[in-house]
Specification:
Elements: H1 2-27, H2 34-55, H3 61-82, E1 86-87, E2 90-91, E3 102-104, E4 107-109, H4 111-129, H5 137-156, H6 161-178, H7 182-201, H8 204-214, H9 225-237, H10 262-294, H11 299-323, H12 341-359, H13 368-373, H14 381-384
Antiparallel strand pairs: 1-2, 2-3, 3-4
Helix pairs in contact: 1-2, 1-10, 2-12, 3-4, 3-5, 4-5, 4-6, 4-11, 4-12, 5-6, 6-11, 9-10, 10-11, 11-12
Protein backbone atom coordinates (compact mmCIF):
# COMPACT_ATOMS: atom_id res chain seq x y z
CA UNK A 1 0.00 0.00 0.00
CA UNK A 2 2.88 2.38 0.76
CA UNK A 3 4.15 1.90 -2.79
CA UNK A 4 0.73 2.70 -4.27
CA UNK A 5 0.38 5.82 -2.12
CA UNK A 6 3.90 6.97 -3.02
CA UNK A 7 3.29 6.48 -6.73
CA UNK A 8 -0.07 8.25 -6.49
CA UNK A 9 1.53 11.21 -4.70
CA UNK A 10 4.28 11.35 -7.33
CA UNK A 11 1.73 11.32 -10.18
CA UNK A 12 -0.35 14.13 -8.66
CA UNK A 13 2.75 16.22 -7.86
CA UNK A 14 4.08 15.75 -11.40
CA UNK A 15 0.78 16.81 -12.97
CA UNK A 16 0.55 19.84 -10.69
CA UNK A 17 4.11 20.91 -11.55
CA UNK A 18 3.50 20.44 -15.27
CA UNK A 19 0.29 22.44 -15.00
CA UNK A 20 2.05 25.37 -13.35
CA UNK A 21 4.81 25.39 -15.95
CA UNK A 22 2.39 25.18 -18.89
CA UNK A 23 0.10 27.81 -17.41
CA UNK A 24 2.96 30.28 -17.33
CA UNK A 25 4.04 29.33 -20.84
CA UNK A 26 0.53 29.42 -22.33
CA UNK A 27 -0.41 32.78 -20.81
CA UNK A 28 2.82 34.77 -20.69
CA UNK A 29 1.98 36.51 -23.96
CA UNK A 30 -1.30 37.84 -22.51
CA UNK A 31 -1.29 38.45 -18.77
CA UNK A 32 2.21 37.45 -17.78
CA UNK A 33 2.38 35.47 -14.54
CA UNK A 34 -1.20 36.25 -13.41
CA UNK A 35 -2.58 32.77 -14.11
CA UNK A 36 0.51 31.19 -12.59
CA UNK A 37 0.21 33.20 -9.37
CA UNK A 38 -3.51 32.52 -9.04
CA UNK A 39 -2.97 28.81 -9.66
CA UNK A 40 -0.21 28.77 -7.04
CA UNK A 41 -2.67 30.22 -4.53
CA UNK A 42 -5.33 27.65 -5.41
CA UNK A 43 -2.71 24.89 -5.29
CA UNK A 44 -1.71 25.94 -1.78
CA UNK A 45 -5.34 25.89 -0.60
CA UNK A 46 -5.86 22.58 -2.37
CA UNK A 47 -2.85 20.98 -0.73
CA UNK A 48 -4.12 22.12 2.68
CA UNK A 49 -7.45 20.41 1.94
CA UNK A 50 -5.59 17.34 0.69
CA UNK A 51 -3.56 17.07 3.90
CA UNK A 52 -6.68 17.63 6.03
CA UNK A 53 -8.60 14.94 4.13
CA UNK A 54 -5.65 12.56 4.50
CA UNK A 55 -5.44 13.09 8.25
CA UNK A 56 -9.15 12.57 8.89
CA UNK A 57 -10.89 9.22 9.23
CA UNK A 58 -12.87 8.87 6.01
CA UNK A 59 -15.63 7.19 8.03
CA UNK A 60 -16.44 10.66 9.32
CA UNK A 61 -17.81 11.43 5.86
CA UNK A 62 -20.75 9.17 6.68
CA UNK A 63 -21.86 11.67 9.31
CA UNK A 64 -21.91 14.62 6.91
CA UNK A 65 -23.14 12.76 3.82
CA UNK A 66 -26.62 14.18 3.66
CA UNK A 67 -25.91 17.68 5.03
CA UNK A 68 -23.18 17.98 2.39
CA UNK A 69 -25.52 16.62 -0.30
CA UNK A 70 -28.31 19.06 0.59
CA UNK A 71 -25.86 21.97 0.78
CA UNK A 72 -24.44 21.16 -2.67
CA UNK A 73 -27.96 20.84 -4.12
CA UNK A 74 -29.02 24.18 -2.60
CA UNK A 75 -25.94 25.89 -4.06
CA UNK A 76 -26.76 24.52 -7.50
CA UNK A 77 -30.38 25.63 -7.12
CA UNK A 78 -29.32 29.09 -5.94
CA UNK A 79 -27.06 29.36 -8.98
CA UNK A 80 -30.07 28.91 -11.24
CA UNK A 81 -32.58 31.10 -9.41
CA UNK A 82 -30.26 34.07 -8.93
CA UNK A 83 -30.32 34.91 -12.62
CA UNK A 84 -28.98 38.40 -13.22
CA UNK A 85 -29.49 39.46 -9.60
CA UNK A 86 -26.61 40.27 -7.28
CA UNK A 87 -26.69 39.93 -3.49
CA UNK A 88 -23.92 41.51 -1.37
CA UNK A 89 -21.48 41.24 -4.25
CA UNK A 90 -22.44 37.64 -5.04
CA UNK A 91 -23.69 37.07 -8.57
CA UNK A 92 -24.18 34.22 -11.04
CA UNK A 93 -23.13 35.58 -14.44
CA UNK A 94 -23.91 33.77 -17.66
CA UNK A 95 -20.62 32.97 -19.41
CA UNK A 96 -20.54 31.47 -22.91
CA UNK A 97 -24.25 30.77 -22.71
CA UNK A 98 -24.11 28.88 -19.40
CA UNK A 99 -24.62 29.85 -15.77
CA UNK A 100 -22.13 27.62 -13.93
CA UNK A 101 -20.22 29.95 -11.61
CA UNK A 102 -20.77 32.16 -8.61
CA UNK A 103 -18.80 35.38 -8.79
CA UNK A 104 -17.84 37.18 -5.59
CA UNK A 105 -15.84 40.34 -6.26
CA UNK A 106 -13.94 38.70 -9.11
CA UNK A 107 -13.41 35.32 -7.42
CA UNK A 108 -15.36 32.55 -9.13
CA UNK A 109 -16.57 29.28 -7.66
CA UNK A 110 -18.22 26.43 -9.56
CA UNK A 111 -20.70 24.62 -7.25
CA UNK A 112 -20.90 21.59 -9.54
CA UNK A 113 -17.42 20.64 -8.29
CA UNK A 114 -18.82 20.30 -4.78
CA UNK A 115 -21.79 18.47 -6.27
CA UNK A 116 -19.46 15.85 -7.76
CA UNK A 117 -17.92 15.01 -4.40
CA UNK A 118 -21.26 15.13 -2.56
CA UNK A 119 -22.89 12.74 -5.04
CA UNK A 120 -20.05 10.21 -4.90
CA UNK A 121 -20.06 10.23 -1.08
CA UNK A 122 -23.86 9.86 -1.02
CA UNK A 123 -23.84 6.88 -3.40
CA UNK A 124 -20.97 5.24 -1.48
CA UNK A 125 -22.93 5.67 1.77
CA UNK A 126 -26.09 4.31 0.14
CA UNK A 127 -24.33 1.31 -1.39
CA UNK A 128 -22.73 0.48 1.94
CA UNK A 129 -25.90 1.00 3.99
CA UNK A 130 -28.22 -1.02 1.73
CA UNK A 131 -25.73 -3.45 0.22
CA UNK A 132 -27.92 -6.54 0.69
CA UNK A 133 -30.92 -4.81 -0.88
CA UNK A 134 -29.10 -3.44 -3.93
CA UNK A 135 -30.11 -6.37 -6.21
CA UNK A 136 -33.78 -5.32 -5.86
CA UNK A 137 -35.42 -2.74 -8.13
CA UNK A 138 -36.68 -0.45 -5.38
CA UNK A 139 -33.45 -0.17 -3.41
CA UNK A 140 -31.02 -0.71 -6.26
CA UNK A 141 -32.45 1.70 -8.84
CA UNK A 142 -35.56 3.59 -7.78
CA UNK A 143 -34.15 5.39 -4.75
CA UNK A 144 -30.61 5.90 -6.16
CA UNK A 145 -32.03 7.41 -9.36
CA UNK A 146 -33.78 10.03 -7.25
CA UNK A 147 -30.50 10.84 -5.47
CA UNK A 148 -28.58 11.01 -8.74
CA UNK A 149 -31.33 12.94 -10.50
CA UNK A 150 -31.25 15.81 -7.99
CA UNK A 151 -27.61 16.70 -8.66
CA UNK A 152 -27.52 15.74 -12.34
CA UNK A 153 -30.76 17.55 -13.09
CA UNK A 154 -29.55 20.82 -11.59
CA UNK A 155 -26.22 20.57 -13.42
CA UNK A 156 -27.92 19.63 -16.70
CA UNK A 157 -30.05 22.78 -16.81
CA UNK A 158 -27.09 25.15 -16.24
CA UNK A 159 -26.43 23.80 -18.95
CA UNK A 160 -23.37 21.59 -18.39
CA UNK A 161 -23.85 18.41 -20.35
CA UNK A 162 -20.20 17.38 -20.07
CA UNK A 163 -20.30 17.20 -16.27
CA UNK A 164 -23.73 15.54 -16.44
CA UNK A 165 -22.42 12.74 -18.67
CA UNK A 166 -19.31 12.36 -16.51
CA UNK A 167 -21.27 12.05 -13.26
CA UNK A 168 -23.82 9.72 -14.86
CA UNK A 169 -21.02 7.34 -15.87
CA UNK A 170 -19.41 7.49 -12.42
CA UNK A 171 -22.75 7.02 -10.64
CA UNK A 172 -23.71 4.04 -12.78
CA UNK A 173 -20.36 2.39 -12.11
CA UNK A 174 -20.74 2.84 -8.35
CA UNK A 175 -24.21 1.29 -8.43
CA UNK A 176 -22.99 -1.70 -10.43
CA UNK A 177 -20.13 -2.24 -8.01
CA UNK A 178 -22.58 -1.98 -5.10
CA UNK A 179 -24.56 -4.90 -6.50
CA UNK A 180 -27.24 -3.45 -8.80
CA UNK A 181 -28.22 -5.83 -11.57
CA UNK A 182 -27.53 -4.96 -15.20
CA UNK A 183 -31.17 -5.42 -16.16
CA UNK A 184 -32.10 -2.57 -13.81
CA UNK A 185 -29.32 -0.29 -15.07
CA UNK A 186 -30.05 -0.56 -18.80
CA UNK A 187 -33.56 1.09 -18.87
CA UNK A 188 -32.44 4.30 -17.06
CA UNK A 189 -29.40 4.48 -19.34
CA UNK A 190 -31.61 4.23 -22.44
CA UNK A 191 -33.94 6.92 -21.07
CA UNK A 192 -30.97 9.18 -20.30
CA UNK A 193 -29.54 8.72 -23.80
CA UNK A 194 -32.91 9.50 -25.37
CA UNK A 195 -33.35 12.61 -23.20
CA UNK A 196 -29.84 13.79 -24.03
CA UNK A 197 -30.40 13.21 -27.74
CA UNK A 198 -33.65 15.16 -27.71
CA UNK A 199 -32.04 18.06 -25.84
CA UNK A 200 -29.19 18.17 -28.37
CA UNK A 201 -31.59 18.04 -31.33
CA UNK A 202 -33.43 21.06 -29.92
CA UNK A 203 -30.22 23.01 -29.30
CA UNK A 204 -28.85 24.51 -32.53
CA UNK A 205 -25.45 25.27 -30.98
CA UNK A 206 -25.01 21.67 -29.80
CA UNK A 207 -25.99 20.39 -33.24
CA UNK A 208 -23.41 22.64 -34.88
CA UNK A 209 -20.78 21.30 -32.48
CA UNK A 210 -21.70 17.72 -33.40
CA UNK A 211 -21.46 18.50 -37.12
CA UNK A 212 -18.13 20.28 -36.63
CA UNK A 213 -16.82 17.25 -34.76
CA UNK A 214 -17.88 14.94 -37.58
CA UNK A 215 -16.30 17.19 -40.23
CA UNK A 216 -13.71 19.54 -38.64
CA UNK A 217 -12.34 20.73 -41.98
CA UNK A 218 -15.71 22.04 -43.14
CA UNK A 219 -16.25 24.04 -39.92
CA UNK A 220 -12.70 25.17 -39.21
CA UNK A 221 -13.62 28.84 -39.50
CA UNK A 222 -16.85 28.54 -37.51
CA UNK A 223 -17.95 26.56 -34.49
CA UNK A 224 -15.16 24.03 -35.05
CA UNK A 225 -12.41 26.66 -34.99
CA UNK A 226 -11.20 25.81 -31.49
CA UNK A 227 -10.91 22.08 -32.09
CA UNK A 228 -9.26 22.59 -35.48
CA UNK A 229 -6.62 24.92 -34.08
CA UNK A 230 -5.98 22.45 -31.25
CA UNK A 231 -5.25 19.74 -33.82
CA UNK A 232 -2.86 22.09 -35.60
CA UNK A 233 -1.07 22.68 -32.30
CA UNK A 234 -0.76 18.96 -31.62
CA UNK A 235 0.42 18.26 -35.16
CA UNK A 236 2.99 21.05 -35.27
CA UNK A 237 4.64 19.81 -32.07
CA UNK A 238 5.89 16.58 -33.61
CA UNK A 239 7.75 14.13 -31.41
CA UNK A 240 9.76 16.55 -29.29
CA UNK A 241 7.78 19.80 -29.56
CA UNK A 242 8.78 23.31 -30.55
CA UNK A 243 10.29 24.01 -27.13
CA UNK A 244 8.84 25.38 -23.93
CA UNK A 245 7.48 28.87 -24.57
CA UNK A 246 7.87 28.60 -28.35
CA UNK A 247 4.32 27.55 -29.18
CA UNK A 248 2.47 29.63 -31.75
CA UNK A 249 -1.13 28.50 -31.30
CA UNK A 250 -1.36 30.18 -27.89
CA UNK A 251 -0.96 33.55 -29.63
CA UNK A 252 -4.72 33.97 -29.96
CA UNK A 253 -5.37 30.95 -32.19
CA UNK A 254 -6.55 28.38 -29.62
CA UNK A 255 -9.29 29.80 -27.37
CA UNK A 256 -9.19 28.61 -23.72
CA UNK A 257 -5.63 27.38 -24.26
CA UNK A 258 -4.91 27.81 -20.54
CA UNK A 259 -8.00 25.92 -19.38
CA UNK A 260 -9.84 23.18 -21.29
CA UNK A 261 -7.39 23.06 -24.22
CA UNK A 262 -4.08 23.26 -22.37
CA UNK A 263 -3.30 19.70 -23.50
CA UNK A 264 -2.87 21.01 -27.06
CA UNK A 265 -0.22 23.50 -25.87
CA UNK A 266 1.60 20.66 -24.09
CA UNK A 267 1.66 18.75 -27.38
CA UNK A 268 2.84 21.74 -29.38
CA UNK A 269 5.64 22.85 -27.05
CA UNK A 270 6.76 19.54 -25.52
CA UNK A 271 5.75 17.11 -28.25
CA UNK A 272 4.05 13.76 -28.61
CA UNK A 273 6.36 12.17 -26.07
CA UNK A 274 5.17 14.56 -23.35
CA UNK A 275 1.49 14.04 -24.18
CA UNK A 276 1.96 10.27 -24.00
CA UNK A 277 3.67 10.67 -20.63
CA UNK A 278 0.71 12.73 -19.38
CA UNK A 279 -1.69 10.00 -20.50
CA UNK A 280 0.51 7.34 -18.89
CA UNK A 281 0.55 9.33 -15.64
CA UNK A 282 -3.25 9.40 -15.53
CA UNK A 283 -3.35 5.66 -16.26
CA UNK A 284 -0.94 4.95 -13.40
CA UNK A 285 -2.97 7.26 -11.15
CA UNK A 286 -6.11 5.29 -12.02
CA UNK A 287 -4.37 1.97 -11.29
CA UNK A 288 -3.25 3.26 -7.89
CA UNK A 289 -6.80 4.37 -7.13
CA UNK A 290 -8.16 0.95 -8.10
CA UNK A 291 -5.56 -0.74 -5.91
CA UNK A 292 -6.59 1.41 -2.96
CA UNK A 293 -10.26 0.63 -3.60
CA UNK A 294 -9.59 -3.12 -3.70
CA UNK A 295 -7.76 -2.96 -0.37
CA UNK A 296 -10.17 -0.64 1.46
CA UNK A 297 -11.23 -1.94 4.85
CA UNK A 298 -14.98 -1.75 4.15
CA UNK A 299 -17.57 -1.39 1.39
CA UNK A 300 -17.93 2.35 1.94
CA UNK A 301 -14.21 2.84 1.34
CA UNK A 302 -14.24 0.64 -1.74
CA UNK A 303 -17.17 2.46 -3.34
CA UNK A 304 -15.81 5.87 -2.38
CA UNK A 305 -12.31 5.17 -3.74
CA UNK A 306 -13.77 3.72 -6.94
CA UNK A 307 -15.98 6.75 -7.50
CA UNK A 308 -13.13 9.20 -6.93
CA UNK A 309 -10.78 7.25 -9.20
CA UNK A 310 -13.37 7.13 -11.98
CA UNK A 311 -14.13 10.83 -11.57
CA UNK A 312 -10.49 11.85 -12.05
CA UNK A 313 -9.60 9.37 -14.78
CA UNK A 314 -12.79 9.76 -16.84
CA UNK A 315 -12.59 13.55 -16.69
CA UNK A 316 -9.00 13.37 -17.94
CA UNK A 317 -10.01 10.95 -20.70
CA UNK A 318 -12.89 13.16 -21.84
CA UNK A 319 -10.71 16.29 -21.87
CA UNK A 320 -7.97 14.60 -23.88
CA UNK A 321 -10.60 13.10 -26.19
CA UNK A 322 -12.06 16.56 -26.86
CA UNK A 323 -8.66 18.18 -27.53
CA UNK A 324 -7.70 15.41 -29.95
CA UNK A 325 -11.16 15.60 -31.61
CA UNK A 326 -11.96 12.04 -30.61
CA UNK A 327 -15.00 13.46 -28.75
CA UNK A 328 -17.25 16.52 -29.25
CA UNK A 329 -16.45 19.58 -27.16
CA UNK A 330 -17.64 19.06 -23.55
CA UNK A 331 -16.01 21.89 -21.61
CA UNK A 332 -14.27 19.81 -18.94
CA UNK A 333 -10.85 20.85 -17.57
CA UNK A 334 -7.81 18.56 -17.45
CA UNK A 335 -7.41 17.55 -13.77
CA UNK A 336 -4.46 19.13 -11.91
CA UNK A 337 -3.23 20.90 -15.07
CA UNK A 338 -5.91 23.25 -16.42
CA UNK A 339 -6.32 26.68 -14.87
CA UNK A 340 -9.20 26.93 -12.41
CA UNK A 341 -9.53 26.97 -8.65
CA UNK A 342 -12.80 25.08 -8.15
CA UNK A 343 -11.75 21.96 -10.02
CA UNK A 344 -8.26 21.98 -8.53
CA UNK A 345 -9.63 22.20 -4.97
CA UNK A 346 -12.08 19.38 -5.68
CA UNK A 347 -9.45 17.13 -7.28
CA UNK A 348 -6.91 17.60 -4.48
CA UNK A 349 -9.60 16.97 -1.86
CA UNK A 350 -10.48 13.75 -3.67
CA UNK A 351 -6.82 12.69 -3.63
CA UNK A 352 -6.71 13.38 0.11
CA UNK A 353 -9.73 11.12 0.63
CA UNK A 354 -7.94 8.40 -1.35
CA UNK A 355 -4.93 8.79 0.93
CA UNK A 356 -7.21 8.50 3.96
CA UNK A 357 -8.74 5.27 2.65
CA UNK A 358 -5.25 3.91 1.91
CA UNK A 359 -4.02 4.90 5.37
CA UNK A 360 -6.72 2.75 6.97
CA UNK A 361 -6.65 -0.04 4.40
CA UNK A 362 -7.09 -3.67 5.37
CA UNK A 363 -3.77 -5.27 6.41
CA UNK A 364 -2.00 -7.43 3.86
CA UNK A 365 -2.41 -11.17 4.12
CA UNK A 366 0.38 -12.97 5.95
CA UNK A 367 1.87 -16.39 5.38
CA UNK A 368 1.28 -19.40 7.63
CA UNK A 369 4.83 -19.25 8.97
CA UNK A 370 4.43 -15.61 9.91
CA UNK A 371 1.17 -16.43 11.64
CA UNK A 372 2.77 -19.21 13.66
CA UNK A 373 5.74 -17.09 14.65
CA UNK A 374 3.39 -14.35 15.79
CA UNK A 375 0.66 -16.49 17.28
CA UNK A 376 0.17 -14.12 20.17
CA UNK A 377 -0.75 -11.26 17.82
CA UNK A 378 -4.04 -10.73 16.03
CA UNK A 379 -3.13 -9.50 12.54
CA UNK A 380 -6.77 -8.91 11.66
CA UNK A 381 -7.63 -6.77 14.68
CA UNK A 382 -7.56 -3.58 12.62
CA UNK A 383 -10.04 -4.98 10.12
CA UNK A 384 -12.36 -6.24 12.81
CA UNK A 385 -12.83 -2.77 14.26
Amino acid sequence: MKVAVTILAFCVTSLLALGLVMLYSSSMTQVGAHYLMMQLVWSAFGLVLCVAATAMDYQWLKKITWPLFVFAALLLLLLLVMGHHSVAGLSAPRINGARRWFDFHGVRFQPSELGKIALIIALAWYGDRFQRRMPTFRWGILFPVVIIGVILGLIFVEPDRGTTILLAAVSGSILLLAGVRWKFIIPPVILAVVALTISILHDPMRMRRIFSWLDPEAHKNGVGYQAYQAMIALGSGGWNGLGLGNGRQKLGFVPEHHTDFIFSIIGEELGLVATLLVIATFVVLALCGIYIALHARDTFGTLLATGITLLISLQAAINIGVVTSALPNKGLPLPFISYGGSNLLAMLTCVGILFSIARQAAPAKISASDFVSKSNDNPFAARAT
